[in-house]
Write a structure and sequence with these properties.
Elements (H helix, E strand, L loop, with lengths): L9 E12 L2 E12 L3 E5 L6 H8 L7 E6 L3 E2 L5 H6 L2 E4 L11 H9 L5 H6 L4 H13 L15 H14 L4 E5 L7 H14 L4 E5 L3 H7 L2 E6 L2 E6 L1 H5 L2 H15 L1
Helix pairs in contact: 3-5, 3-6, 5-6, 7-8
The chain binds adenosine-5'-diphosphate and magnesium ion.
Length: 258
């Protein structure tokens, strides 16, 4: 099935994208559009190609065929991973990658001043403007009270928020977040939902998730991925009531049993 055609304000476009790994089609004729400012949730069973889709957008891997564009006419398929990152596409992987021996504050500072090097980031004078920006980010991710704590001492959920904060420090136009609620407590998951909702409109956000309570909390439009292409798209209720979606998930449950 085809995805909704792009609005003039679209930020991300994938058209007929395919990617095989040793003959296995992980992404198959995938067409996907996202509007600027949108908070989109992508769900789908294990192995549906969700993370591979992010690998393709961020330039970690190259498509075998198809178009991937950022904004109006920036072709992402020819750019390197760092170049794509510099364009304003930030990605959060499933496992948090924070500097555990540095404080929460320093972690954000390192991201803010990343391009100036580690030495500069830690030992140069911090302007009041930058300090304010760091606290603003810490507040956004609910870690302002933890600013002096070493990142290694944070809970799993707090580390995830810190990493989201580190991404925000780079002021990305598009934020890609892969399974943020994995391993979180219910309370942390709910807070993560609130955090993502608070970013809506300021950034375009693509969230991959399979915790349906969480999806229900944050979702506007949901895209269901299956065998590397879009199976269906709509509101949470629409996709949950879709017969094809039910089959895919029920089919998977049966397979998991043996
Ligand atoms: P999801 O994130 O939806 O669970 P993935 O995108 O991780 O799924 O994987 C989709 C399929 O592609 C899986 O069968 C996976 O084993 C395969 N795959 C993903 N990346 C690679 C890779 N680098 N090399 C070989 N196979 C891969
Ligand atoms: Mg994945």
């Amino acid at each position: 099935m085809t995805s909704t055609p792009p609005h003039p304000e679209f930020i991300l476009l994938l058209e007929n994208v395919s990617k095989s790994f040793e003959g296995f089609k992980a992404i198959s004729n995938l067409t996907f559009y996202m509007d600027a400012g949108e908070l989109r949730v992508v769900i789908g069973p294990n192995g549906a190609g969700k993370s591979t889709m992010l690998d393709l957008i961020t330039g970690r891997i190259r498509p075998d065929a198809g178009k991937i564009e950022f904004g109006k006419d920036t072709d992402l398929t020819t750019l390197s991973e760092p170049a794509i990152n510099r364009l304003g596409i930030g990605r959060k992987f499933q496992t948090p990658a924070v500097y555990i021996d540095h404080t929460v504050f320093e972690n954000i500072r390192l991201s803010l001043e990343g391009s100036r090097g580690l030495w500069n980031a830690l030992f140069s004078r911090l302007t009041a403007q930058r300090r304010d920006r760091i606290y603003e980010i810490l507040k956004t991710v609910s870690l302002d009270a933890k600013s002096g704590v070493k990142a290694g001492a944070l809970s799993h959920g707090q580390k995830q928020w810190l990493e989201i904060g580190m991404l925000l420090a780079q002021n990305p136009r598009l934020l890609l977040v892969d399974e943020p609620a994995a391993g979180m407590t219910d309370e942390e998951t709910h807070k993560t939902g609130e955090l993502l909702l608070s970013l809506e409109g300021r950034h375009s956000i693509l969230v991959i998730e399979h915790d349906m309570t969480f999806v229900r909390q944050i979702a506007r439009k949901v895209t269901v991925l299956h065998q590397g292409s879009v199976l269906c798209e709509g509101s949470v209720d629409e996709v949950q009531n879709d017969e094809r979606v039910r089959e895919v998930y029920l089919g998977r449950k049966k397979k998991d049993k043996h």
